[in-house]
Backbone:
């Protein structure tokens, strides 16, 4: 009894579970399907219906990807339990849009990395069993989106797949021109139960097209298929496939093109033959005439080829091979391109291939990534080409030529290219590639040759392997590149504007060469006035470690030297530079000789990169120069003789500069016939300045040139010096100016120590003191106090200093000199007794009187006058004035006659002479 109750309750429980499952499972499955569809944001569904009775439906399913979109309803007949059994019967209805992918594949050419015959990796999907199913297609429209949409209506089809037994389909559609497309095929055992292709299966397919538009591609529209009938049959896929097709085409309803194909693809004995596809070679004929080139768009657009623009509107293609022992001949002709050639299947070689193409400017820009512009005609001739493997007759695997004529321009350098002729060859046995020829650049013919050799021991499978092996190892490789008569104007794009004048060293054209070896590259450059050689040492494939044994030799005609230096040069110049080594960090040693006339300048130096400490990464330079022609340097720097006249020539100098590529600090010291100096300068932000802790010191030997060109600019009084007891010492501190030479930016504190000197008695200073301005006295001993000059914004202010003559007469000086305008405003004073030394009446004055003098005008033309504010009468008082006036008058007139006493100020002006 107890067991019966348990069984009863167990049965009730199972019943409840079954009832629950009956009502719960369909909604659960519906939600699972909706969730699965929603995983892709581009998918959506309006309604999913799952029931035990059936049918199972999906309504308003929208799917979309880069290939197109579809809005369809899917119906699976039968109840829910029928899903567990076979066969399945589907009905798909709705609308579909197919996107033209011709543009999206542009530029995507290239190998995928997977070998053609490489089997797919084994995965768990190999356990998949292909179901037996029937699918009915009932689409109202199928739209192909190209340049113009193409719509097919009432697209109906049926697919039946029973693995190992049945595989067939039929499809028909109405075109928007009122025509039709009918296609059907049958391959009974094409698919195995695991869904794999059975290569031993037989198959047949028939296609019939009437009045169907061809999609508008690359702007080519109006084309349609008037009629096309074709069959593809095979008794065994792995052995032979026969293709037979005949078609007629029209453009805007005018009959134009025809196509006839009668070929078979059969197994070949040449398994590595480059002219086979999936191990099959072609026999038969193909004749295509006046058909749109747009049918090639799916193949060519990925390479950037616009079929209408680059090929033309229509094309012809002919292929013929009578038997498997015959040669294959093929030709192609379009508005812009023609090609023909012969294929020898047995030898695996292409011969007598010629290709001629008119290349428009847009395609030129596409091919060169914008580097070139213009249009050209290109002709390629291949005498022979063995794409895969070695040549069977021990001849070169590749041999041909290229000729380009047109109006091309290399955009970055603005270089015209009107002609190119190139011969090329590749030899696998010698592992060598050679390219040579001539190219017309800027209406000048340049020749070139490139030879590369592969020294790797790897096995080569063809010229593509040879090419890859050679160029993948560059710059470490073996070969040589040389070019002669290259227009120098090409270099202007790569040289900064301010340095382009140095390209004149090369002349109108130059030659260069590069010889590659495993560990270095030897470079050579030859121009009209310069020759340079050097070796680049390599580490790894792309790392330059150092450049060694650099030699630069140049002979400059006087005219070219004048152009480069910006000054007149009357003699030929010679330059010799040797750089034993310069590494990638910038460490180097170098020497140079510059010879002009009888003058030689020698330079030795080195650069050093800091690798540790606070200055890590900075580059320093140490230079020692002797024989520097300061006259030439003065002219180059436009110093108007200042350097040459101050320092003399030649100059020897040592320079130690730190951080030359960042914020340079330059310490320099040197000697010349007239000077010795030391300085420390900084160069930041367009300014040059002295280092505060290290003032600039200069010792100058007196010379007439120094007096007239340097001291004169510092003040007229300094130009009166004839000799000095000790060298003039000048100390400069707190100096700064802009590197553009703007005098108004000059600031400095200058201290000049002159000391004991001898002045010219006929100088401007002595004219203030007629007592010394006499033919009986040539020189006057004097002493200069230290002179302090403060320069601000190009204006020099002199602190008061005294010039003492013959140890007795003290003449004070102060004032300003404007170096921008060269205007003078200097104040001085001379003793009245000194002015009147020859006037005996003034000799008895117990108190001397200083007469204030103003020196104005310019540095080159100073003007000396008595200060107009000077009141001599008030100083001498009335009594003395008459006496002095009478005395001065008598002294000046010298006739002993009585005259009215002259004005003393007028007499002083006469004494000064208005200078």
Residues:
């Amino acid at each position: 009894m107890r067991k019966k109750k348990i069984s009863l309750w167990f049965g009730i429980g199972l019943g409840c579970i079954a009832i629950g499952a009956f009502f719960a499972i369909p909604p659960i499955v519906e939600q699972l399907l909706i969730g699965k569809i929603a995983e892709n944001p581009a998918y959506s569904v309006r309604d999913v219906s799952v029931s035990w009775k059936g049918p199972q439906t999906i309504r308003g399913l929208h799917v979309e990807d880069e290939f197109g979109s579809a809005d369809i309803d899917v119906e699976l007949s039968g109840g829910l339990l029928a899903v567990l059994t076979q066969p399945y019967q589907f009905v798909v209805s709705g609308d579909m849009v197919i996107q033209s992918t011709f543009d999206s594949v542009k530029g995507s050419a290239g190998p995928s990395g997977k070998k053609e015959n490489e089997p797919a990796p084994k995965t768990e999907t190999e356990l998949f069993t292909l179901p037996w199913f029937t699918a009915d297609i009932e689409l109202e429209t199928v739209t192909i989106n190209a340049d113009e949409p193409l719509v097919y209506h009432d697209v109906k089809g049926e697919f039946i797949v029973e693995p190992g037994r049945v595989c067939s389909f039929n499809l028909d559609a109405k075109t928007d021109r009122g025509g039709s497309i009918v296609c059907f095929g049958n391959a009974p055992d094409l698919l195995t139960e695991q869904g794999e292709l059975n290569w031993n299966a037989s198959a047949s397919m028939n296609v019939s097209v009437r009045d169907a538009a061809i999609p508008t591609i690359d702007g080519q529209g109006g084309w349609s298929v008037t009629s096309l009938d074709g069959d593809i049959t095979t008794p065994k896929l792995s052995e032979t496939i026969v293709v037979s097709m005949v078609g007629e085409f029209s453009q805007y309803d005018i009959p134009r093109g025809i196509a006839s194909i009668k070929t078979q693809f059969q197994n070949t004995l040449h398994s590595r033959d480059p002219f086979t596809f999936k191990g099959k070679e072609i026999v038969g004929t193909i004749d295509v005439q006046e058909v749109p080139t747009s049918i090639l768009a799916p193949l060519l657009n990925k390479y950037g080829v616009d079929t209408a623009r680059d090929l033309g509107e229509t094309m012809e293609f002919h292929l013929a091979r009578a038997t498997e022992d015959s040669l294959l001949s093929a030709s192609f002709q379009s508005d812009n391109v023609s090609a023909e050639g012969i294929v020898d299947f047995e030898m695996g070689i292409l011969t007598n291939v010629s290709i001629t193409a008119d290349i428009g400017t847009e395609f030129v820009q596409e091919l060169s990534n914008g580097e070139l512009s213009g249009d050209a005609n290109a002709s390629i001739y291949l005498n022979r080409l063995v794409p895969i493997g070695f040549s069977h007759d021990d001849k070169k695997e590749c041999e041909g030529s290229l000729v380009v004529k047109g109006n091309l321009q290399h955009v970055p350098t603005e270089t015209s290219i009107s002609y190119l002729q190139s011969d090329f060859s590749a030899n696998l046995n010698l592992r060598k590639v050679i390219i040579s020829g001539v190219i017309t650049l800027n209406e000048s013919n340049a020749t070139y040759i490139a030879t590369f050799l592969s020294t790797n021991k790897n096995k080569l499978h063809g010229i593509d392997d040879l090419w890859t092996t050679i160029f993948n190892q560059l710059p470490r490789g073996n070969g040589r590149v040389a070019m002669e008569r290259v227009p120098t104007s090409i270099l202007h794009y790569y040289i900064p504007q301010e340095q382009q004048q140095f390209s004149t060293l090369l002349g109108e054209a130059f030659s260069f060469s590069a010889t590659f070896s495993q560990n270095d590259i030897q470079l050579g450059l030859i121009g009209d006035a310069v020759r340079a050689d050097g070796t680049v040492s390599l580490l790894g494939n792309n790392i330059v470690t150092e450049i060694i044994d650099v030699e630069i030799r140049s002979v400059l005609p006087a005219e070219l030297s004048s152009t480069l230096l910006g000054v007149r040069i009357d003699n030929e110049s010679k330059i010799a530079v040797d750089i034993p080594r310069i590494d990638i960090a910038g460490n180097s040693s170098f020497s140079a000789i510059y010879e002009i006339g009888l003058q030689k300048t020698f330079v030795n130096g080195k650069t050093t990169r800091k690798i540790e400490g606070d200055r890590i990464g900075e580059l320093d330079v140490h230079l020692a120069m002797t024989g520097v022609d300061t006259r030439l340097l003065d002219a180059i720097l436009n110093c108007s003789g200042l350097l040459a006249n101050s320092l003399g020539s030649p100059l020897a100098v040592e320079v130690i500069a730190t951080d030359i590529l960042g914020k340079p600090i330059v310490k320099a010291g040197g000697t010349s016939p007239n000077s010795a100096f030391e300085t420390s300068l900084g160069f930041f932000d367009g300014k040059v300045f002295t280092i505060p802790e290290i003032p600039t010191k200069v010792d100058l030997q007196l010379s007439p040139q120094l007096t007239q060109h340097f001291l004169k600019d510092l003040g007229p009084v300094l130009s009166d010096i004839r000799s000095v007891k000790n060298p003039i010492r000048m100390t400069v501190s707190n100096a700064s100016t802009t590197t553009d030479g703007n005098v108004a930016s000059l600031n400095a504190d200058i201290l000049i120590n002159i000391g004991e000197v001898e002045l010219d008695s006929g100088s401007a200073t002595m004219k203030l003191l007629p007592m010394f301005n006499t033919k009986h006295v040539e020189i006057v001993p004097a002493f200069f106090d230290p002179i302090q000059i403060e320069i601000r914004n190009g204006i020099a202010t002199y602190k008061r200093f005294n010039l003492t003559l013959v140890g007795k007469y003290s003449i004070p000086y102060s004032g300003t000199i404007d170096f921008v305008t060269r205007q003078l405003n200097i104040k001085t004073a001379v003793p009245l007794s000194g002015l009147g030394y020859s006037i005996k009446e003034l000799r008895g004055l117990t108190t001397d009187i200083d007469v204030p003098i103003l020196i104005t005008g310019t540095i080159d033309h100073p003007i000396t006058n008595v200060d107009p504010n000077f009141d001599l009468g008030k100083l001498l008082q009335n009594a003395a004035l008459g006496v002095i006036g009478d005395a001065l008058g008598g002294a000046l007139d010298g006739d002993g006659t009585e005259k009215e006493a002259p004005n003393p100020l007028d007499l002083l002006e006469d004494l000064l002479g208005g200078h």
Remarks:
- The two ends are 154 Å apart (CA to CA).
- Residues 477-582 form one domain.
- Residues 104-126, 836-843, 878-905, 907-915 have pLDDT under 50 and may be disordered.
- The chain is about 15% helix and 50% strand.
